Amino acid sequence: MHNLTEFLAKHNHWFVFLVLEVVSMVLLFRYNSYQGSVWFSSANAVTGKVYEWDSAVESFFSLSGVNSQLTQRNAFLEQQVRMLDDSIARLTRSQEAAVTRLSSMVPFQGCRLIPAKVVANMVNRYDNLITIDKGSADGVKRDMGVVCGMGVVGIVYLVSEHYSIVIPALNSHSNISCTIQRRGYFGYLRWRGGSSQLAYLEDVPRHAHFKLGDNVVTSGYSSVFPPGVMVGKVLHVFNSADGLSYRVQVKLSTDFARLRDVCLVDDSALQERIDLMRAAQDSIKPQ
Q1: Kindly report the CA angle at 99 between 227 and 150, in degrees rounded to 5?
Q2: What is the mean pLDDT of residues 100-108?
Q3: 211 burial class (0-12, 13-18, 19+ CB within 10 angstroms)?
Q4: pTM for this prediction
Q5: Can you give the residue ranges of the Rod shape-determining protein MreC beta-barrel core domain (predicted)?
Q6: Cα–Cα dist 67/72, whole Å
Q7: What is residue 207's three-state secondary structure?
Q8: For the stretch 214-244, what's the b/e string if a residue is b when 16 or more beta carbons lie within 10 angstroms of its beta carbon?
Q9: What is the CATH number of domain 114-284?
Q10: 131 Cβ partners below 8 Å, 6+ apart?
Q11: Span 152-191, pLDDT tens digits
Q12: pLDDT one-digit tens code per residue, 131-163
């Protein structure tokens, strides 16, 4: 206490100076209209800039939530666009066939999309895996399809309470049933290593007619994905090893190297099909 008193006594002239400065500034800006207007304008400019910085910081930290919403919406809109393209093309050939196709291919209708974020991702291994931040507590179950705004990602393999492991299309064990859009020919999408942008549609019949650039979408026969989810585009065509079918090189629409936000497809009808298929497989196992 003695030191504080001694310090104030020693530097009292500085404190008196500061008090007088404050008083003079108040008198100057309060009783002089010109100086007051200058102070008001300057204060508003500073306050506005501070609010602008605060808004920018708040917007930056809210981008994560906005991005998740956009991913979910993009996944839905992508399939709507492809559905409309498909129906328009079929209407030019057969109106009746288009109506039938349209009624059976409404993407994600009756599905619940669960948004999630990728917390771990591999693209440079033979059996890549993806970890997402949603688990059983969020309604995630094994064998759910995983999509992003650009198309197919993979299938849920393991589920814990708050996290899940996804087998992506970039995994040698991935085997997704696909079709060449508007051509009606089916095959299985497989990845054998190499570029994260390329996979192969196997077992396409030799009599199939299609062209480079055609869209490859899910067929709806895998009991995981609804029909019409974008997979990629036909890049090249090769003969299979036995020469009995085509091996179609597909440029994947999903950029796995930059994957951040995904959605899980929660479809009770698909889950019922999966459970029924498992029950059938168990019933025909040798005793």
Answers
A1: 30
A2: 43
A3: exposed
A4: 0.61
A5: 118-265
A6: 9
A7: coil
A8: bbbbbbbebbbbbbbbbbbbbbeeeeeeeee
A9: 2.40.10.350
A10: 118, 119, 120, 121, 163, 164, 165, 166
A11: 999 999 999 899 999 999 999 999 999 998 887 888 999 9
A12: 999 999 999 999 899 998 888 999 999 999 899
The whole-angstrom separation of Cα 131 and Cα 119 is: 6
Beta-carbon contacts of 178 under 8 Å, excluding residues fewer than 6 positions away, are: 186, 187, 188, 189, 201, 216, 217, 218, 219, 231
C-alpha dist (Å) from residue 139 to 20, 70, 114, 161, 162: 67, 21, 8, 9, 10
As given in the structure block, the two tokens for residue 54 are 């605060």
pLDDT digits (tens, 9 = 90+) for 232-252: 999 999 887 777 888 899 999
Question: Interior CA angle at 236 toward 233 and 237, to 5°?
Answer: 115
Give the start-to-end residue ranges of the domains of the chain. 114-284
Rg (CA), the chain: 31
Query: Tens digits of per-residue pLDDT, 200-237?
Result: 999 888 888 888 999 999 988 766 888 888 999 999 99
CB 99 within 8 A of CB 86: no
Count CB neighbours of 204 within 10 A: 24
